[in-house]
Design goal:
This protein has 7 helices and 6 strands, in the order βααβαβαβααββα. It is α/β, with parallel strands linked by helices. It has a 6-stranded parallel β-sheet with strand order 3-4-2-1-5-6, with helices on both faces. The protein is globular. It binds farnesyl diphosphate.
């Protein structure tokens, strides 16, 4: 750079935490005359690509909505397939995730899950606890209202036991009892498949998240699609209720 010149542009910040609603597996399959399960299987491949890309891009946290508390209402065969996919994902991919220094966290209700799934979730968290790279938060059997109700119940227990006073219950108190209180709020939430709603995902944590809806069905999602969504995020001006734009992370 010649003397006296200043760079005209500063590279916009990469979001620290990206959360993804991986939607459209069924429609991807239907459009090809394939069974829905094929869409979910291809969805796992898209997930692998996305985790790899997120690490390369320098994202710190990625949360994925992999099974919602409401997904139990699907036909038993599809629920079984989704449970099987989680089992296989952890069995097949955990060693590689660990090797890549990924830390796995799980949010959602553990009670009521098959015992072997419960053990796999604990194993994934325990094995990767000391990793310092990308944090992968898997929302499994997750619903945001249920998470907030669980937190409220824990706060109530604290009040009953006398550990905290009624008057000390603030949003920070409740926030400390959420499923992963140390994970920062998502800067960016991406939903694939063209649907434009949050569907009971991270309702507390998304208060100031930027929402980006992309038409791509989840099985087709890749690094280019992720970069496009991040590009849109970087155009947004985040004011967090104030008047001056702030960076999220
Ligand atoms: C939404 O597509 C997707 C899901 C309900 C499940 C998401 C799961 C995966 C991508 C793979 C599983 C990954 C793990 C780690 C278990 P949809 O079925 O609602 O699609 P549709 O709206 O087109 O029917």
């Amino acid at each position: 750079m010649s003397e006296g010149k200043v760079p005209l542009s500063v590279k916009p910040a990469v979001p620290r935490h990206v959360a993804i609603i991986m939607d459209g597996n069924g429609r991807w399959a239907a459009a090809r005359g394939l069974p829905r399960v094929e869409g979910h299987q291809r969805g796992v491949e898209a997930l692998r690509r996305t985790i790899r890309a997120a690490g390369e891009i320098g994202i710190g946290f990625i949360t994925i909505f992999s099974f919602s508390a409401e997904n139990w209402s699907r036909p038993a065969s599809e629920v079984g397939e989704l449970m099987g996919l989680l089992r296989r994902f952890i069995r097949n991919d955990l060693a590689e995730l660990h090797q890549s220094n990924v830390r796995v966290r799980i949010i959602g209700e553990r009670e009521g899950l098959d015992a072997d799934i419960g053990r796999l979730l604990v194993e994934a968290e325990e094995l990767t606890r000391g990793n310092s790279g990308l944090t992968l938060v898997v929302a499994f059997n997750y619903g945001a209202r249920q998470e907030i109700a669980r937190a409220a119940r824990r706060v109530a227990e604290q009040v009953t036991s006398g550990a905290i006073k009624n008057a000390d219950v603030t949003m920070e108190t409740l926030g400390r009892f959420l499923d992963a209180p140390d994970v920062p709020d998502p800067d960016l939430i991406i939903r694939t498949s063209g649907e434009q709603r949050l569907s009971n995902f991270l309702l507390w944590q998304s208060a100031y998240s930027e929402l980006v809806f992309v038409p791509t069905y989840w099985p087709d999602f890749d690094r280019a699609a992720l970069e496009l969504a991040i590009g849109e995020y970087q155009q947004r001006e985040r004011r967090f209720g104030g008047l001056v734009a702030k960076t999220g992370s």
